[in-house]
Structures are given as structure tokens and as C-alpha cells.
Amino acid sequence: MQGKKLYQEKLFSSFQLSHRVPENNFYRRLKEVLDLSFLYQQTHVYYGKCGQKSIDPVVFYKLCLVGYLENIISDRKIIDHCSMRLDILYFLGFDIDEELPWHSTLSRTRQLFPENLFEEVFTHVLSMCVEKGMVCGHTQAMDSAPIKANASMDSLELKVPEEQLEAYLQKARYQSREDRKSKENKAPKTQQIITASNQELQQVKSRNRNWQKNQDQRPGASNKGAKYTSNKTHYSPTDPDARISVKPGKARKLNYLNNISVDTSNHVITDVKAYHADKKDNQYLQDATKRLQQRLKKQGLLWRNLLADAGYSSGENYAFLEKENIISYIPPHGTYKGGPAGFTFCKEENYWLCPQGKKVTFRKQRMVKNSLQNHYLTKRSDCKNCPIKQKCIGKSFEKKIGITVYVDEYERNNKRVRSKYGRYMKGKRQSTVEPVFGTLTQFMGLRKINTIGITQANKVMHMSATAYNLKKLLKFVTKKTEIMVNEAITCFSVVKNQFGSFMSFLSLQ
């Protein structure tokens, strides 16, 4: 007999979420494991003693976590998504007839709480991973990647000299009123003034000419604002902390730099930080190392090895890591050659010997592109009638050698990198930190920063990393439980077989 289902809403019903959410559900298990009650004590200073009650800080943070666990970066969509999921409502502590907070409450509360609070939650979850034996701390892999900022290249403004700033702003305001697109300029006055030297501006112009010749056919090159832009000449009034950065073969964008460290044992994120995207990776290594070293020390873990790519290579970093008793496995940058070909270095007397037996003596130390170098020169008389002058120095009068003062640190690191164990460490790094970045950007809501400012970007990155570690934690606990159950079953089977054999022996007697 054919059935036909008719729907009619009941006035009264008996319903419990705990009966409908399965025992093995992810959010049910997460609710049992995650305790954020310490947030009440940490956040009470940010609220008054009268007025309407605010959103529960634990509920706020759980809602944010759900967004990253479900790969949703819009606050409005987070609320809509949570209201349709019974397991998430159970995780949040809401019943089916309770209204969730308004979506703008998430944005306001995120701005209210300081960034150190989000770091504390990240550290709390990391401590849970350490207690479960997921983090050894011995070897850490470090890497960084640009994350798109919540600002468009079309909004870029031109930096002008200080004496012309006021006239330029008046003209811009008048044009905005005419176009009915007047917006607040959030950039400080210091960022609106051009500070680049004439030499730097000339380099920008030269790069622009090369871009015009070589990059016009690249993807995104036709976008307004994608060409002829530099942090020395332009800034974003929408998000002043965002910086223009570019990857080879890709159009320029306003980004933040996400720097993370990952433990190689179970791929748990041990450190995360938002930086400006207009600097090189090696300029942030020492800051990240100090922060991570303190965190691991508080967890009672000893850090011994650091794995990173060539972007973190510099003599200053190698010397710093040796001072901190950390062994580096960082490939040297392509600019390091170890000295000119055919020249021999005499370390005792600190000079170079050319192929013709002439000395290239030490003259002075100076900074070149934020790196300290030793500079050596020959005498003009030594090079005047040299048979290999044209090949060696061309039209110059003397041979000049500029080499980093950290040659010994470079060579010790390079020896480790070229060894068999160093090649193993390279594979370890590639299989550890790079998949983590792929997971964060594609599946954990970090494909774009949906906030304004580097402080808010840092909060977003910490929450995404926290969500990633929680997924790792639950997966590890489940896997460990299954292993223990299988071992118990195997042990029981062995004992049963041995007991059966013993009983058979007794029956024969």
C-alpha cells in the first residue's frame, strides 16, 4: 500500500538535541574536549556592570571556530549556517527555539577583545595537543605565505611630498564629492607622505618600464591598479596596514604575510603571526624564533632543529640561531657565492689572493641591503698591467670584493644542508609545513582576511590555526583509541589461545 506523508506543525513537542546528535559526531566530541571557561575571567574587564547582557564570550569564540572549521569567512553566513545545524547548536549550547546572536555582534566583539586573548586560546589548545603527546618540539618547520587583504588595488592612493599633501587631499575630496564615492581615509599622515629617495624612485620607474614590456600579458595585468604600483609610491586608504606584494607570474595584490611554525611529529601548528607583506621572510625569522622558543619552553619542550626554505637565509639569521643553540637547515639564497672564483682566502691575515698572486686587502665593513659586509680592494698598480685585467675587472681600476661577515656561519649551515641528513630534512619540511598552508587557505577560511588592520588579521590567523589544531587533536584521539582497542582485542585473542592450549594439555594428562 502506498504511503503518503503529510506535514503538520505541532503546537507542543518533546525534543532534546542530545538525543538527536550522534555520539561520534565531530561537534559533540569537540564539546566534550574543549573547555573555554577561562575566557570569562579573561574578558570580564571589557564589560560594564549595567545595561543589556552581551554575547557569551565562550559562545562568541565557538561561533568563530565554527566559521573556520566550516570554511566560512562571512559573519552573516556563519550565523545562517549554524542556525540550520543541530550538531553545531548543541556545540554552542543553544536549543532549537533559541535565536543566535546577530551577525554584527561577532564583528564588534572581535574588535573589542585584544589580540593576546586569541593567542592565549591558541596556546591553550596547543597545550591540549602537548598533553596528548602530539608535539615533540624537537624539530620545527617554518614557512610563510601571502594572504589577501580586505582591500582592492583600485583604492590605492598616490603618496605625495609633504608640502603638497594638503592641496592633493583637497583635490581628492572634491573629486570624491563629484563622483559620490567619498570614503574615510584610514591611513595616518606619515603613510600618505612619500619618503623614498630619488634613487629608490628611479628604481621603481625602471621596474615599471620592465613591467610594461614583459608583464602586460600576465593574468590580472589588465586590472586597474595592478601595474606601475609600489609601496614606495602608493598606499591603501581602506586598509593602511596591507602591503603590495607579488609572486612570480602573478598580478600584484594587497596582502598580509602569514608566518607559521609546524611541529614535524604530527603536523601541529606551534606558532602563527601576521606580518606586513612588504618585507622578506628572513627579516621576521628572529622575532618568530624568540616567540616560539618561549612558548615551547613553557610547555616543557626542547627545540633543537629549524627547517625553512631559502627565503629565510641570511648570515645574521645563521649566527642568531647558533647563539640560541638551534641547528638550522636553511638552503642558502642564490646571491651567496662564498667568494670570487679563482681567488684564495687567507683567514689568518684576512686578505684574498688573486690568480696572479696579488693581495686583495681588507679596507672596511659597511651595510649593503641590510647585510653587513667586508670589503676588500687591490692596489691600482697591481691591476694596471695584469694580463687577465679585462676578464677580471673590465674597465675598473682595481678589484673589489664584497662578502658577508658571516661566511663561517654560511659554510657550517651549507655543509649540513648538503649532507644526506640535510636532504632528508628538506623532504621533511616540504611534507610538513607546505600541506598545512594548503589546508589553511583552502579548507580553514584563510583564503582572505575579512577584517581591517594587522591586529585584526593576527586574530583571524590565530583562530584559523586554533581550528586546525582542534581537528588534528580529535583525529589523533580517535586514532589512538582505535589503536588501543585493536591492541586490547589482539592481546585478548592471544591470551584466549594460550588458555585454550593449556586446557587441552590438561585434558591429555
Automatic annotation (TrEMBL):
Segments of skewed composition (Basic and acidic residues): 175-187
Domain Transposase DDE residue range list: 353-474
Annotated segments matching region Disordered: 173-242
Domain Transposase InsH N-terminal: from-to ranges: 16-111
Residue ranges, compositional bias (Polar residues): 188-214
Secretion signal span: none
InterPro entries, per the entry: IS1182_transpos, Tnp_DDE_dom, Transposase_InsH_N
Name listed for the protein in its UniProt record: IS1182 family transposase
